[in-house]
Design brief:
mainly alpha, elongated, 18 helices, about 300 residues, single chain, about 65% helix
Length: about 300
């Protein structure tokens, strides 16, 4: 009987079978697939998006190989996720051989968040009730529900870890979760507003985005909080100083005197972006208006 060369389908099948099992010392983690996993896409959706990117033509592979590769990556990410909940463990474990620079990438991306999503949650209590409303937030922001839940759990995890820690909030976040300076400051803002339960959804503040609030939070933490007075308070250094809140009542005259308020805004704008400076002033005004709510907790 004459010998016939195997067709391309047979070759692809053998290739897929050869690639199903991989043995190596360094854990392979594709950054693009990792981002798809973080964004909450299923394996099927991720494969479709990778096909549309032209990866099959680029590598000369078939879709079966791509599906196997994507499934393997997703399985690896799910196994590593528990380590990402406490990033310091990632460097001290033996299950995954991951270079330090790749570890930093995994951590930074895992704790990254969508600005539109965090803007919806900023200042709200990080409770089960808020988590139940994530379906609506997902629909409004276009962020997948799975990604919303991951980001919410990250916010809550960071809050729970640092709320009983002494010392500067941002530095504690940076050291415990191994985040970059910028991301640690952003989480500091999230924790700050969650701690004081300030409603950022007020109509007067709708024009402010998350970056504006993060800048304001940094200024408030640096100048208005207990930590600004005592660097080693018993817990988080972001509680508003009680004596300062007493003095803040006297500034309520700014709210009723429009000319004085406008003059104060003009002074605050100097040296800063106009939107951000006005945002800080508007935020302070809202805090002044809320001071009567704080009065019950502040001895007169």
């Amino acid at each position: 009987m004459a010998y016939s060369a195997p067709d391309s389908a047979d070759k692809a099948l053998r290739m897929a079978m050869e690639l199903d099992v991989f043995v190596g010392n360094t854990t392979i983690m594709d950054e693009e697939v990792y981002q798809l996993w973080l964004d909450g896409y299923t394996v099927t959706d991720a494969v479709s998006m990778r096909v549309r990117s032209g990866i099959l033509e680029q590598w000369g592979a078939c879709q079966a190989v791509l599906e196997s590769d994507t499934t393997d990556h997703y399985r690896t990410f799910q196994m590593a996720e528990r380590l990402l909940h406490c990033p310091s463990k990632l460097a001290n474990q033996l299950l995954f051989q991951i270079p330090p620079q790749r570890q930093a990438m995994l951590i930074e991306r895992y704790y990254a968040f969508d600005p539109a999503f965090v803007r919806e949650l900023l200042g709200k209590k990080l409770s089960k009730g808020t988590k139940k409303d994530l379906d609506d937030v997902s629909t409004k922001t276009g962020v997948t529900l799975k990604s919303c839940r991951r980001q919410f759990d990250n916010f809550k995890r960071v809050f729970k870890v640092v709320e009983e820690m002494k010392g500067p909030l941002v530095e504690n976040i940076k050291q415990h979760f191994l985040l970059s300076d910028r991301l640690a400051r952003d989480y500091g803002a999230i924790v700050f507003f969650a701690n004081i339960r300030f409603e950022t959804g007020k109509k007067k503040l709708q024009y402010l985005n998350f970056e504006d609030f993060a800048f304001c939070a940094g200024q408030l933490i640096q100048n208005w909080t207990v930590g600004a007075v005592d660097s080693m308070v018993e817990d988080m250094d972001v509680d508003l100083d009680k004596e300062f809140l007493q003095d803040l009542k006297e500034l309520k005259i700014l709210i009723t005197d429009k000319d004085m308020l406008d003059q104060h805004k003009r002074s605050g704008v100097r040296g800063h972006s106009e939107t951000r400076a006005h945002g800080c002033v508007d935020l302070c005004v809202c805090l002044c208006k809320s001071v009567s709510c704080v009065r019950d907790s502040v001895p007169v």
